[in-house]
Amino acid sequence: MSLLVVGSVAFDAVETPHGKIDRMLGGAATYFSVAASFFPHVNLVGVVGEDFSPQDEAIFRGRRIDIAGLERAPGKTFFWAGRYGIDPNDRVTLATELNVFATFNPKLPEKFRASSHIFLANIDPTLQHSVLEQITGRPRVVALDTMNYWIERTPEELRTILRRTQVLMVNDAEARILSNEQNLLRAARHIFSLGPRILVIKRGEYGALMVDSKGVFSVPAFPLEEVHDPTGAGDSFGGGFMGYLASADRLSDAVLRRAMVYGSVMGSFAVERFGLERLRHLKRREIDARARHFAKLTQFKL
Questions:
Q1: Pairing, β 198-202 against β 208-212
Q2: Cα of 166 vs its chain's centroid, Å
Q3: pLDDT tens-place string over residues 17-62
């Protein structure tokens, strides 16, 4: 099995109550691919500028990540700066510089076009659709992330790509805006009418919720004493979720539930340090140990 991710590779500047870093590697596709690489082989498609050095690229080396689809373009790499308050949900964006990402037009290497699992990270729905147009065969799972900007500014383009999507991964606010429903179960019912069969709602410190035809499954956030940097939590969750799905031999209810747990596990590791520092040194045995801890957190007898 192989997992394709298309999205941003970026530099971030982040300030939290635990410190400040003026430049570190980030981006949705970066967090996703590193988190997912603990499970299957990952094919990465993105774009970086001339300021992206071999030292920056080192995060992908020694992992099951193929960066043949990482385009290098004249100019600077996408840059984002933000500040978090004591509440990790309290985020202020200080700067967004699209740079080479502004003209990003994903081109899949031939060897990526038969990927069995596809994750379309948060980019223009038109570009997400162009990725699927380059896919050969029938992928087992197509999952998509989006945000308020695309929901409100490009509703028709988003609806087009949702018709070709099995899994939609958003936060609770985005689910409500997309469906125009406040109740998340009614929101899920509306979203299913648009195409997806599985809705995964990322809820930050409150964990994550999965809704499908079989019902509802919820996982808590792993209890941590300190959250150093929440920036990559959602994308690392996506990497863990899709990575586990791609490593499984079938798409069953049990597999989806374990994927939710592994998504939460990867998100919990990501926030323990700034940027990718914790994921960079993570071992698979630590991942499995925390997954077992998750099972204990939610296990009880009636």
A1: antiparallel
A2: 15
A3: 999 999 999 999 999 999 999 999 999 999 999 999 999 999 999 9
Instruction: Tell me how far CA of residue 264 lies from CA of 135, 241, 277, 285, 287, in angstroms.
Output: 29, 8, 18, 16, 10
- For 110-119, the pLDDT digits (tens) are 999 999 999 9
Tell me the H-state helices in the chain.
28-36, 54-57, 125-133, 148-153, 155-162, 172-179, 184-192, 233-247, 253-270, 277-280, 284-297
- Cβ neighbours, 10 Å, residue 293: 14
- Cβ atoms of 7 and 70 closer than 8 Å: no
pTM equals 0.96
The rounded distance, in Å, linking the Cα atoms of 6 and 28 is 9
Identify whether the C-beta of residue 46 lies closer than 8 Å to the C-beta of residue 29: yes
